[in-house]
Amino acid sequence: RQADRKETAAEQTPNTIALRPSTVIIRHIITGAGLDGSTMDLLHSFGVDLAVHLQAQCRDYESWFHLASMVADLHTAFFILFPVWFHLRHEVGIKLIWVAVIGDWLNLVLKWVLSGERPYWWVHETWYYGSLQAPVLEQFPITCETGPGSPSGHAMGSAGVWYVMVTAVLSIAAEKKCSDVFIGYMRLVLWTVFWSVELLVCMSRVYMAAHFPHQVITGVITGMIVAEIFSRVQWIYSASLKKYFYITLFLLTFALGFYLLLKALGVDLLWTLEKAKKWCVRSEWVHMDSTPFASLLRNMGTLFGLGLGLHSPLYTESKKSTSAPFRGGCIMTSLLLLQLLDSLNFSSDNETWYYLLSFCKSAAAPLIATSLVPGFLTHLFCGKAKNIED
């Protein structure tokens, strides 16, 4: 059957998707790397077959796949994991934000360059199957992401974030001078958990027909590389507010400049949005918050908000309080306020206002966790202490 598909496709066209400028450019890049159109067709068809198999055989685990995709989203890192880790160990929280933001920014650039397809629209437009009936892929509310597919942002983000957390726990154990046997056992357990989580995330993205297998594998590897690089970088813990501002500005202008350059060359980087709107079975499943620019501004807002929070007088004053009850209070209060902040949803009718408000919302999240909540609790506890003394 695979041979018939390949033969039929070869007779019709060497390319599986209708020609567009970005596809022409990327085909030359792929061909130069040794992957021609037929090889990519085989890779894509294998991914579709695997997705069909998972949807047929793993139906009972659908809720787990939904949970895995939700946890792997960087939204979880920004609104849940960051406030917890920041108040337990500031350096880990800071590194987590940097790895997540830079990793997702790199993911955006790579997606623009690689211009990867997604299963839920590729299966409808490819000529690979020829006269044979194409496989039927089920779609879900989280299937219809609007950006290019390679590498997987969920796989890349979760790999980077979990890599930071695993290495952080192992470093803490080493600092506590735990026995070599205990550290070895902990290393085995934590890395087993890490790879189990990544496997579940990868299966989830394939099950949802949002990614091909090679895209999630590439995402995991790239995410781990980004996290490992930042494990060797120390200046992020003492970066000035000016440096935060300039880095945020550089990342934003570079991405926009790269977009405008490719657009001037005739490359339509928003072609995937049209695909999503065309092939998603329900229009309400196409969300603006999954567009490349929404992701870019969210990340830039998060990084800039972290810089504002770390250089706020409230944060400087709150660093004097290190007791366990204070840290616990900061974690619980931050999580509560961030969930309230997260409940704010903006209309996408006006894209300019939508992007601006998304930036402000993302900047507010780390600002609340790093300075506003600790500062408020510091004043609250200090005020009670003074009243008791009086």
Automatic annotation (TrEMBL):
It is found in: Endoplasmic reticulum membrane. The chain crosses the membrane at residues 64-84, 155-173, 185-210, 216-237, 244-262. It is an enzyme of class 3 (hydrolase). GO terms for molecular function: glucose-6-phosphatase activity. InterPro entries: Glucose-6-phosphatase, PAP2/HPO, PAP2/HPO_sf. It comes from the Eukaryota. It is a multi-pass membrane protein. One of its GO terms (biological process) is glucose 6-phosphate metabolic process. Its EC number is 3.1.3.9. SUPFAM superfamilies: Acid phosphatase/Vanadium-dependent haloperoxidase (SSF48317). Pathway: Carbohydrate biosynthesis; gluconeogenesis. The active site is at H154, H211. Substrate binds at R118, R205. Belongs to the glucose-6-phosphatase family. This is Glucose-6-phosphatase catalytic subunit 1. It comes from Synaphobranchus kaupii. The lineage of its organism: Eukaryota, Metazoa, Chordata, Craniata, Vertebrata.
